[in-house]
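Project outcomes to date are best conveyed with an example. Our students and postdoctoral researchers have been running inverse folding experiments weekly, and each run begins with a structure described purely in tokens. The record below, which covers 186 residues, was selected by the lab manager from last quarter's runs and is presented without edits.
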């Protein structure tokens, strides 16, 4: 059995490189450029959000609360539309992305740590590259590849965007698997 401490190099390297690949995907690849659409009247929408929300957070509309979801008034609002989820971000975090960048790096390192944990618990030392690649790639894809589908099913993320996230997750999983396969203790 391989100890998790013996995998510090692939964990750190996989987390760091996947972070860099993720950054490059979002900065340079064209497939996410049309994930968002502009509103017809951006200024009116921004004024409405500014005047009707408490600031950063997630807002669901029309809102009924658990006890009001069966009421005729709520059903009429739903039928009249629109129905949506509004995510309002902190403007400081949008203009200064250092905190988000750090959180993203931390996320990729934590995923790599759990991939390493699973591999250390299931694969002995001297396991061949292809088996290490298979196990770690599958685990990494489970973490990175399905991230958008829950939002697609329940929160309105367009399915095409969820599939794009899955494609990105596959790339991250392949990078992770290659690094673990390469640096697996022999």
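After processing, the design step wrote out the following sequence:
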């Amino acid at each position: 059995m391989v100890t998790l401490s013996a995998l510090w190099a692939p964990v750190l390297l996989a987390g760091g490189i996947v972070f860099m690949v993720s950054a490059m995907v979002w900065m340079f690849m064209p497939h996410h450029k049309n994930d968002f659409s502009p509103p017809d009247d951006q200024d009116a929408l921004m004024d409405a959000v500014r005047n009707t929300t408490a600031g950063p957070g997630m807002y669901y509309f029309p809102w009924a609360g658990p006890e009001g979801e069966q009421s005729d008034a709520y059903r009429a609002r739903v039928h009249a539309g629109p129905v949506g989820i509004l995510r309002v971000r902190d403007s400081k975090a949008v203009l200064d992305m250092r905190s988000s960048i750090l959180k993203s790096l931390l996320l990729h390192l934590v995923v790599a740590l759990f991939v390493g944990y699973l591999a250390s618990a299931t694969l002995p030392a001297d396991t061949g590259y292809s088996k290490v690649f298979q196990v770690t790639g599958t685990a990494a894809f489970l973490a990175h590849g399905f991230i958008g589908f829950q939002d697609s099913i329940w929160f309105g993320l367009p399915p095409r965007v969820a599939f794009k996230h899955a494609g990105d997750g596959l790339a991250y999983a392949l990078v992770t698997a290659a690094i673990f396969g390469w640096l697996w203790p022999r």
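DSSP finds eight helices and two strands in the chain. The beta strands are 57-61, 84-88. The training component of this project remains on track.
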